[in-house]
Amino acid sequence: MSDKLSQLKSMTDVVADTGDIEAIRRFTPQDATTNPSLLLKAAALPRYQSLLENARSAASQNGGSEREALAIACDHFAVAVGREILDIVPGRVSTEVDARLSFDTGATIDRAKHLIDSYAALGVPAERILIKIASTWEGIRAAEVLEKDGIQCNLTLLFGFEQAQACADAGVFLISPFVGRILDWHKANRDLQVTRGEDDPGVQSVRRIYRYYKTHDYNTVVMGASFRNTGEIEALAGCDRLTISPALLEELAADQGDLPRCLSPDDATSDDAKTELSEQSFRLGVNEDAMATEKLAEGIRNFIADQRKLEALIAGNGDNA
């Protein structure tokens, strides 16, 4: 019998949730994802120091304000890391728009197009890039415009069902529902003990979204993300895609047990009626879901914090120890 990672790859596209080139090379995923937190970690790796220096040069040559220069430099670093990743993976890399733009549709569109242009300058076509955007109302509207312009998007920081509904209606290419962070919230706010993957509230959320999409013939790809353990991953075997950290990829590769398929489009049925949400119903629905409201806000804050740390590093005001 093959290991569980090999079995998983036979039914799900496996994506590496890291900017570590060596880990990506070892586990041979289809795609890879990055975000400000992962880029900050990548900036500490010796192999990326030349890219970091190039980003510093880009900042010094920018004619705008210091803040604008550093933001562009961070994009320069993100694209450079993404370009290296694309030399290894056969598919795509996801690159994130500055989280400070999460509530600005127009600025998100502009920044996304800048990222695509930056990749094009390095010879990377748009079809190998997914632009990551937070699943706010404004972010979803930006993605709707970008998708129509041929720029495909990965809607991240997705915790609530209304976010998933709105993304599908906007024609978003892919969503990343955060399994582990949902579990974190329930553990912190409820007397919850999870002993099986199928009892995990994050797993249940992704299964609900997957079944809703397949039942109502949405083309949006479901990519579970933010896993805390391999039990969550195994309970979502068969999902369109799963983005997994190197540590959990290692565990799956070392496990020789049987991995049954848990999700399949052929037998997916949903009790949720197809509903197209207005802005008001979207905002009310997310507000009614305390977990989604709190984790979305927290996620944006954390990404902004790491973006600022990366900017400080590029400016020479931080260290990469």
Task: Compose a concise summary of this entry.
With 321 residues, the protein is α/β, with parallel strands linked by helices.
Helix/strand-derived class? alpha/beta
Low-pLDDT residue intervals, each spanning 5 or more residues:
none
- Strand percent estimate: 5-15%
Helix content: 40-55%
Query: At the first level of CATH, what is the class?
Result: Alpha Beta
Gyration radius, in Å:
19 Å
The major sheet is characterized as: 8 strands, parallel, barrel
Q: What is the architecture at the second tier of CATH?
A: Alpha-Beta Barrel
Strand order in space, largest sheet: 1-2-3-4-5-6-7-8
Strands, count: 8
Count of spatially separate domains:
1
- Per DSSP, the total helix count is 14
Distance between the termini: 42 Å
Oligomer: single chain
State mean pLDDT (0 to 100 scale): 94
Order of helices and strands: HEHEHHHEHEHEHEHHEHEHHH
**Apparent shape:** globular
Describe the structure.
By secondary structure, the protein is an alpha/beta fold. Helices cover 52% and strands 11% of the residues. It has one domain (4-315): Alpha-Beta Barrel (TIM Barrel). It has 14 helices and 8 strands. It has an 8-stranded parallel β-barrel, surrounded by 8 helices. Helix 4 packs antiparallel against helix 5, helix 8 packs parallel to helix 10 and helix 9 crosses helix 10. The longest helix is centred in the last third of the chain and has 26 residues, at 290-315. The chain is globular and about 55 Å long.
